[in-house]
Structure formats: structure tokens, C-alpha cells
Structure prediction request, 312 residues.
Amino acid sequence: MLLVVLIRSGKWQLHILPISSVTRRLKKKMIAFSLFIFGAQFLNVLAKTNDTILVISLRGLADTGIFAIATYVSAALEIPQRSITSISIPVLSESWKNKQMDNIRNIYAKSVSNLLVIGLGLFGLIWLNIHNLILFLNKLSSGSKGNYEIIGPVVLVMGLAKVLDLATGVNGQIIGTSNYWRFDFFTNVFYTILSIPMNFILIKSFGLMGLAYSNLIALTIYNGVRYVFLWRKFGLQPYTITHLYILAVTVLLYGCIYYIPQSNNLYMDILVRSIAFLALFIPIIYYTRVAPDLSDFITAKLKTLIPGKTRY
Prediction:
């Protein structure tokens, strides 16, 4: 429909451009590269979506609905990852072209720090309020108690898998823009071959929790292979002891907020837990500067609120 409207507007014309000499000379490499990239992305999507098909066939529509809700909740963690990976690709390509390894190392380290902090923050807001989501869904079930309690542990495991994926930064984009871009395709083949049978076996044995554990195990191995490859091949190792400290402190913070007495008012409970978590989490991230870009962003916002102050 959009194409018809565009043609009828009279502002669209099809121009057949001559094939350039560069295209003629490099067409085989261009086609091979495009097919490998397309194949890698297709397999990646297949590995991450075959679980829904297996739930439908093995567990029925009721469990599929529950698993879909858990998937949507945990998928919220992927939003910042998509933005950062999209931004990083042209910068990484230019850096590889100019052999600027220091810049690639810097991008890798920053992506790990920023995505880890964002992932821990979003996961904290989700996990600390998951009981409110369950309560809300049960209330929607015609006033009767629904079977949504399983969403809690499923979101916990799937959320941890997403945080782990975020904590590996732009490893796939670094490999995909390097001369070893075929390795990106092969790791996605490995990921797909690993995830499908493991999903089938674990969902048959442990139900929805088996599927959640399968996602966690597959993503751990998948990203572990990529991490080792970048470390061995290019000497890229973005992690420091600060990341471990932040992880430990955040887990402790989760525990403290989690045991706040629950309010009878669902919305008040969400507000109290979210504010309490952010009021502690943001200052910790800011003063430790584990993610300098985020700390600088907070500083810039504080300057606009309180002019004349340069450090808080």
C-alpha cells in the first residue's frame, strides 16, 4: 500500500544505474559477505525463537502464553543493546579500515561497561517488581487465581541470560566488521545447533524452567566462545575488577530491596521499590564511574539543574 501511494505521488522513479567498476571487481566478495551476514542473522533469530515453537508443540497454548509474557518482559533488556550495536558498526568498520586497535579496544570496553550497568538497572526494576506483575495477571484472570506464578522464576533465569548477553558488549559487531567475519556466521551455526536440541530436551524434562535454563546455558557458551576468540586473536579483554565489584554490590542491593515488606497497594509497592532501588543504584554507578559515559551524562544533567556546579 505504501508503494502504491508513493508511485501515485509522482515523486518516485526507478533509476537503473550502471554497475561500477568496483562492483564488478569485488562482486564475488560482496555477494559472499552479504550471504554470510544474512545467514548469521537468520540463524541468530532462529536460535532465539525456536523455543516458542517448541513450547506450542510440547506444552500447549496455555504455557505458550505464559512463556510469551516472560519473553516480552525479559526482552525489554535488549532495547539499549540494539541502539548501541547499531551505532557501533560504522565506527568499528572505520577503525578496522584504519587499523585503530586502541579505538576498537575502547569501544569494546565502553560497550561492556555501559550495557552491563544498564542491564543490571533494568533487570533490577523488573525482578524487584515481578510479584506485582504476577498479582496483576492473576487479577485479570476473571478474579480467580491464575497459573502465573511460574513467570517469576522464568523471568529470573531469562533475565540473567539477557544481562549476560549485554555484559559481553559489541563482541559480535567487532567480529563481524573484522577480517574474520566468517567466524560470526560459524558461531551462529553453533548457537543454533546447540540451542534447538537442548531446548527440546530440557523442556521435555523440566517444562518452562527447562527452556529458561536452556537459554541461559546456550547464551553463556555462545558468548564465551566469542569472548575467547577476541581475547586470543586480538588481545581484547574489556573486563576489570571494578565490574566484579559492581556486580557483587548490585546483587546485595537486589537482596536488600527484595525483602522490603510488600504493600497491599500494587502501584504503591511498585513506586516504593523502584524509587528505593534507583536511589541507591544510580549514586553507586555514578561515583564508582564503572561506566564513565553514564556518569558524565548524569553530571551534564546535574549541571543543567544546578548551574555553577561542576562536580557532585
Observations:
- The chain has 13 helices and no strands.
- The two ends are 54 Å apart (CA to CA).
